[in-house]
C-alpha cells in the first residue's frame, strides 16, 4: 500500500482565518514533506520532517507552520495567508535515505487552497 | 547542484500513436531518476524510477524509460497511448549527496487526441 491521504480536498479561507491541512501515511515511512504547487508548475518543496524532526525549511514565511505529532501524521497550520498563497498543497512521504538519494517519495492527492 | 530540463512543454499526439517525453539532467555526482504523472486536479503518481541496474526501466500503465549516462538523459516512452494518458508528466532527479531532495523539471503536458 503506497497511500498518502490528505484532508480537506478543498479549502477556502479569508486572510484573517486560521486553518490546518492534514496528511497521514501508514507505510512506516520516517520522512514526510510539504510541497506547494502553482498551476502548470512543478511542486516546490516547503518543509521536510525526518524522524518527526524538522530537517528542511525552505525559507517559508512564518504564516505557514508545520507540525509532525507522530511518524504517521503531518499538519500544516495556516494563519494570515495572502491571496498569492492560493495553490495545491501536496504532502509526500518516504523511507528517508539521508544521503544516498535513493529515496522514493509517494504523494497524496493534495489540498486545493483558495485564499480570498 | 543538479538540474532537470524537460525539452517539450506540450506534446500533442493521436490515440494509439507512440510517444516520447524527453528529459535531460545535469549533475556532477551519481543520480537517481524518477518520472511522475499528474492527472487533472490530482496529486503526483510515481510512474517509474531508475536507481541502479538495468538502464531500461518499465513502469506502470505501459510506460518505460531508458537511462543514458553518456547523454545524461532519461526519456519516457510508450508505444501506443490512450486518451486516458492525457496528463502532466514530471521528470525528477535526486543525487547521492542530496538525500531525499528531489529536483523537478518544468513538466510536459501530454494531450492525447481521438
Task: Produce the secondary structure layout.
The complex is a heterodimer of chains A (116) and B (114).
Chain A: E1 4-7, E2 10-13, E3 18-25, E4 31-37, E5 44-50, E6 53-57, E7 64-70, E8 73-79, E9 87-94, E10 106-107, E11 111-115
Parallel strand pairs in A: 2-11
Antiparallel strand pairs in A: 1-3, 3-8, 4-5, 4-9, 5-6, 7-8, 9-10, 9-11
Chain B: E1 3-6, E2 10-14, E3 19-21, E4 23-26, E5 31-38, E6 44-50, E7 56-58, E8 64-68, E9 73-78, E10 87-95, E11 103-104, E12 108-113
Evaluate the radius of gyration of chain B.
14 Å
> What gyration radius of chain A follows from the Cα positions, in whole Å?
14 Å
End-to-end gap of chain A: 37 Å
Low-confidence stretches of chain A at least 5 residues in length (pLDDT < 50)? none
The two chains with the largest interface, and their residue counts, are: A-B, 32 and 29 residues
Mean pLDDT of chain A: 92
Tally the helices of chain A: what do you get? Answer: 0
Morphology of chain B = globular
Amino acid at each position: 500500500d503506497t497511500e498518502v491521504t490528505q484532508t480537506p480536498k478543498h479549502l477556502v479561507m479569508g486572510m484573517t482565518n486560521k486553518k490546518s491541512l492534514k496528511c497521514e501515511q501508514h507505510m512506516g515511512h520516517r520522512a514526510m514533506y510539504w510541497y506547494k504547487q502553482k498551476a502548470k508548475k512543478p511542486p516546490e518543496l516547503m518543509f521536510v520532517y525526518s524522524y518527526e524532526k524538522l530537517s528542511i525549511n525552505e525559507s517559508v514565511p512564518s504564516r505557514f507552520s508545520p507540525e509532525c505529532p507522530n511518524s504517521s501524521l503531518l499538519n500544516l497550520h495556516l494563519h494570515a495567508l495572502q491571496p498569492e498563497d492560493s495553490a495545491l498543497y501536496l504532502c509526500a512521504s518516504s523511507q528517508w535515505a539521508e544521503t544516498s538519494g535513493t529515496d522514493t517519495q509517494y504523494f497524496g492527492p493534495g489540498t486545493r487552497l483558495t485564499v480570498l | 547542484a543538479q538540474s532537470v530540463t524537460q525539452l517539450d512543454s506540450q506534446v500533442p499526439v493521436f490515440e494509439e500513436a507512440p510517444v516520447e517525453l524527453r528529459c535531460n539532467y545535469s549533475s556532477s555526482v551519481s543520480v537517481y531518476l524518477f518520472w511522475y504523472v499528474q492527472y487533472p486536479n490530482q496529486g503526483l503518481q510515481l510512474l517509474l524510477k531508475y536507481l541502479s541496474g538495468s538502464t531500461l526501466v518499465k513502469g506502470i500503465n505501459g510506460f518505460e524509460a531508458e537511462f543514458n549516462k553518456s547523454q545524461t538523459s532519461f526519456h519516457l516512452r510508450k508505444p501506443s497511448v490512450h486518451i486516458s494518458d492525457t496528463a502532466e508528466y514530471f521528470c525528477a532527479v535526486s543525487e547521492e549527496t542530496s538525500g531525499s531532495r528531489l529536483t523537478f523539471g518544468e513538466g510536459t503536458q501530454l494531450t492525447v487526441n481521438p
